[in-house]
Amino acid sequence: MRLLLGLLLSCHTLLALAQPDPFPEAATAYRVEVDGRPVWERQANRRLPPASLTKLMTVLLVLDDYRPQAEVTISRTAANETGSRLGLRNGDSFHVEDLLAAALIHSANDACRALAEHIAGSEARFVQRMNRRARELGMRGTRFSNACGHDTPGHYSSVRDLALLANESLRHRALLELTAKQQVKISALNAPRDYRFANKNALIGRYRGALGLKSGYTPRAGKCLIAYAERGPTRVLLVMLHGSDRWWDAVDILDLAFDHARAAP
Question: Which of 48, 141, 186, 263 could connect to 158 by a Cys-Cys bridge, CB 3.0–4.6 Å?
Answer without folding.
Answer: 141
